[in-house]
Amino acid sequence: MKGKEFEVREYPVPEPASGTVLIKQELAGICGTDLHNWEFQRMEHDVIPGHENVGVLDAIGAGVEEDYLGNPVKIGDRVVLSPGVGYGFLPSEEQPYLRGGFGEYIYAWHPESLFLKTDLPIEVAVLTEPSACAVHCVTRAKIRFGDTVVVQGSGPIGLLVLNWARLSGAASVISVGGPGGRLEMAERFGADLTIDIADVPDPNDRKRVVRENTPQSAGADVVFECAGNPAAIVEGLDYLRRGGTYVEYGHFVDSGTFECNPNQMLLRKNLRLEAAWGFESNHFIRSLRMLEKHADLFKDFVSHVIPLERVGEGVNALHTGYHLDGRDAIKIAVKAHM
C-alpha cells in the first residue's frame, strides 16, 4: 500500500535466520484498522498490510523447535501469527522484507514473534487476531451474570465482542449497526435485539429503543463501542444505566474528535470508562483456545475470499457500505494462491 494505492510487488524470499520462521500464507483478513489507515492516511511509509494471518511453516531457522506455548513444530504445520511486533504495519522497502500478510509469504523475523500451532480450518484460524481484540475488550468490561450488554458496531470486532460477551454471562445482548447481513450474523451469535441504523437513522430513536429493552428502561449495564465513529461515543453513553460500564475500543486509528461535557456525559452517570488498546499475548492465546472450542459458530464468518489483485476492492467495500460481489461483507480475507 502506497498512500491510497495498492500494487503488487515482488521481493526476494529470505532463508530464515536462526530463531526465525518463514510462513507461507494461507489467508489474511482485511481489518477496519487497514481501512482507517487507508482512509485517514495514517501510514507515513509504504507498507505490506495484513496483520490477521494464518499459514503453514515453509522454512524454519536453526533453534526453532516449538511454538510460543511449547508445542513442537515442523515444516508444514499450520500456525497463526500475532502482529504484536508490527507485522502488517512496518515499512515494506526496508529489510528484512515480507513483514505483512497480504502476500505469498510472511517472514517472522523478530525474536519476540508469537506464533501458535493450530488445526483449525483457515477460515476460522484467520479470526484469531480480531478475536484477541474482542477477548481483551470483553475482559475489560468485567461482565456479571445477567448483565444487559449493548454492542455498537456490527463489523467483525463488534460481532466477536457480542459473541464472547454472551458466553461471558450476558443475559441480554443488543447489536446496533448494519447492514442486514452483519445483523443476521449477530442474531446467529445470540443477539436478542438488532437495531439497523439504516432503518432507525435518528440517534434519539435508537437510544429510546435500547433503553426500552433494558430492565426498568434504566439502560444497559455494559456498552461496547466498536464502530470507530466518534459520534457513536456520544450516543452510546446515553445507552448506559447509572453506574454502568462503557468500553471504548473502536478508535485504534485516530479518526477524529467529539465534543464532551464531562459533567453531563460522564460524572453524573457515575459510570466506569474503559479504553482498551490492541491486545496482549494472553488474549491471543485465549482467543485461539475459544475459537478451537467454538469453531462451528464461525463457519460462515469469512464472507469473501479475494486474490491479492482485488485488495483495493476489498478495502473500498468496507469504505462504501460493506457490500462486495452482490452480498453484504462480514469478514473479507485475502488469499495469495487462488
From TrEMBL:
Task: Supply the alphabetized keyword list.
Answer: Metal-binding, Oxidoreductase, Zinc
All residue ranges annotated as the Alcohol dehydrogenase-like C-terminal domain in the record: 156-292
Q: Does the keyword Metal-binding apply?
A: yes
Against InterPro entries, the record matches this protein to: ADH-like_C, ADH-like_N, ADH_Zn_CS, GroES-like_sf, NAD(P)-bd_dom_sf, Zn_alcohol_dh
- For the keyword Oxidoreductase, the answer is yes
Q: Where is the Alcohol dehydrogenase-like N-terminal domain?
A: 18-108
GO terms (molecular function) for this protein are: oxidoreductase activity; zinc ion binding
Tell me one Pfam family matched here.
ADH_zinc_N
Q: What is this protein called?
A: Enoyl reductase (ER) domain-containing protein
Q: Organism, per UniProt?
A: marine metagenome
